[in-house]
Design goal:
This is (4Fe-4S)-binding protein. The chain has helices at 15-25, 42-45, 73-77, 99-103, 141-158, 174-180, 194-209, 225-237, 251-257, 269-287, and strands spanning 2-8, 29-33, 48-63, 109-124, 127-134, 163-170, 185-190, 214-219, 241-246. The chain has 289 residues and is an alpha/beta fold. The protein is elongated and about 70 Å long. It starts with a strand and ends with a helix.
């Protein structure tokens, strides 16, 4: 079984657009949307949810009104002003440090499991999709990403599928680390902008730290030839194989509005380039142990 994660140093580079196209082109795979903070692969794949569960990512503190004497010690101790005058803890302000429970002489403050989001297993026209939604302001996104990947691997093993394709989150933080750790190959989708170049450098260094093979692709390479050349030079200098250069095409937006991938919609040269890109990546996946 092979596992590919598609990431980008920043949002908006076209990572999910590429992933949705691969979903249409690949065979014998299960899909995982690891961008749990802002999942959007489902917008193109039109999934039908078959299974859903709450995500218990951590614990939170609660004040038992029957035991609380409203002495004010917890309010005075809280550095985050998370306890209001009614002695209710604001979950968005609370940092779960536990100091309030420590100073409470009434033993009225206890820790309990908290629901931080939901995760789903869905059917799509292109196979199974595991995806999730982290609650607003909730922590533990990396833990939820790991859960999504575990479920995708379980499905692949049960159905004897040979490939897992992960649509990873942007950036270089904890959820990205959770999305790339232990995979066979990472594809970085970048763009020829200054922020795109900067974030390509950061995320490629992260992959190098974990010793994960990396490929790169430039989306909308023709909108800034100078910056595209800078990306080519960086990839060459750092041993990163540049496997695709996708041109700018307004029809890509039309495909997204129609909720279709760029290979299932007439996107001109883009459709051909992305199809060749997948063929190249598929061959490279077979070479990595």
């Amino acid at each position: 079984m092979k596992e590919l994660t598609i990431i980008s140093g920043k949002g908006g580079t076209g990572k999910t657009t590429v992933c949705a196209a691969f979903a249409s082109l690949a065979r014998g795979k299960v899909l995982a949307d690891c961008d749990v903070d802002a999942a959007d692969l489902h917008l193109i794949l039109k999934p039908t949810v078959r299974h859903r569960e709450n995500f218990i990512g951590g614990s939170s503190f609660r004040i038992d009104g029957d035991l609380c004497s409203e002495c004010g010690d917890c309010q005075a101790a809280c550095r985050f002003d998370a306890i209001d005058d009614g002695y209710v803890i604001d979950p968005l302000a609370c940092e779960n440090c536990g100091l309030c429970a420590l100073v409470c002489n009434d033993k009225a403050i206890t820790m309990e499991d908290s629901v931080n989001g939901e995760w789903f297993i869905s059917e799509t026209p292109f196979g199974k999709l595991v995806h999730a939604r982290l609650g607003i302001g909730e922590d533990n996104s990396g833990k939820l990403v790991s859960l999504v990947r575990r479920q995708a691997r379980r499905i692949a093993e049960e159905q004897n599928l040979s490939l897992i394709i992960n649509d990873g989150p942007p950036g270089i933080g904890c959820p990205v680390t959770a999305a790339i750790t232990g995979v066979d190959l990472v594809l970085i989708v970048t763009e020829p902008s200054l922020s795109g170049i900067h974030d390509l450098e950061r995320v490629s260094q992260l992959c190098r730290h974990f010793d994960i093979p990396v490929l790169a692709c430039i989306n909308k390479h023709d909108i800034n030839p100078v910056n595209s050349e800078r990306i080519r030079a960086y990839c060459l200098a750092n041993g990163i194989s540049l496997v695709g250069e996708i041109p700018f095409e307004p029809a890509v937006n039309q495909a997204q509005v129609a909720r279709k991938s760029v290979v299932d919609f007439n996107c001109g040269e883009v459709s051909k380039v992305v199809a060749r890109l997948w063929a190249d990546i598929r061959e490279k996946l077979l070479t990595y142990d």
